[in-house]
Amino acid sequence: MHQTFDAVLEMNLLHANQAGADANRDRLDRWGITCLNIMSSPGSGKTQLLEETLRSLQAELRMAVIEGDMTTQLDAERLRKGGTPVIAINTGRACHLDSKMVAGGLHQFEHEQQPEAFDLMFVENVGNLVCPAEFEVGEHAKVALLSITEGEDKPLKYPLMFREADCLLITKTDLAPYLEVDIDKIVANVRQINSRAAIISVSAKTGEGLEDWYTWIRQTVTACANRSIAQMV
Amino acid sequence: MHETDMTKALILTVKGWLAQQPEQATVERVHLTVGDFAGVEPASLQFAFQVQTQGTFLDGAELVIKKTPLIAFCHPCQQEYRPDIGRQYSCACCQSPMDDIRSGRELKIERVEFSQSVAA
Description:
heterodimer; A: alpha/beta; Rossmann fold; seven-stranded parallel sheet; 8 strands; globular; B: alpha+beta; hypothetical protein PF0899 fold; 2 domains; three-stranded mixed sheet; 6 strands; 24% helix; metal-binding (chain B)
């Protein structure tokens, strides 16, 4: 005869992804690398921001990029032009990077480079405001971009991404004169769901605000390095 | 459509749990809790579950999804409130940001109902 039973699991659905993300972070910590997960909708300016950032900071920080793209290598090729090592991951049908894909990227990175010589790793996620917010990849901080052409209401419509962000970059501010957009309103909408994130307005084209973004990066790298040292002693 | 990946994760978790059971068991029902503030659509999860379990050990098993509302706690007002998703998340009384989420972020496998043959 058959009898029915009940078992309590109480497990997070993303348990496996989370464990993989923690393992990636441990690996990055051992190498002394700070990892930033860069997320936004398609076309908000992630790649151009990275091009500028790599160019401006290459004298002081050793950087690498893991580039998530659904099918092409176009973004990776753009970033490689500046000489930065770029690991391209084609996510196929997946609309986000997960910790397993990034683990594969880190493996390749370790094989091709000397990881201990690096300070900073950017993970450029797939352009999407929904999925990447749920999948941690092993980053030390999350950076979300929102271009002013996307409208003031996006933080309200896609709250999870903006809540999770440690730093929000409002991009393409050079377009402000041509648009009816209220940047203060964007900031206020983000503040409803996230009171702690650094919010910086930037234009990768004119350079406006980029110094503030670099300052945030430096502070984050220093904070991570200090924490790693504290863990070792 | 990351519900496909979520469902894959769900199937793997249940599979792992089943492998640890001393006796052979058949999974009848999987109970999930999905918060209104999680980035997941319950209807898509149901669909993905049906498609992805076909021909597997979970074929015929039922996915039961319990939704939990988004509830935040406002510290200045010292009370819970329900943010209006898509419109307003800050406290309607004092406009403080939604810092403390008490419910609505869940994405959890609560329990599994299974049947086993037992000696009469």
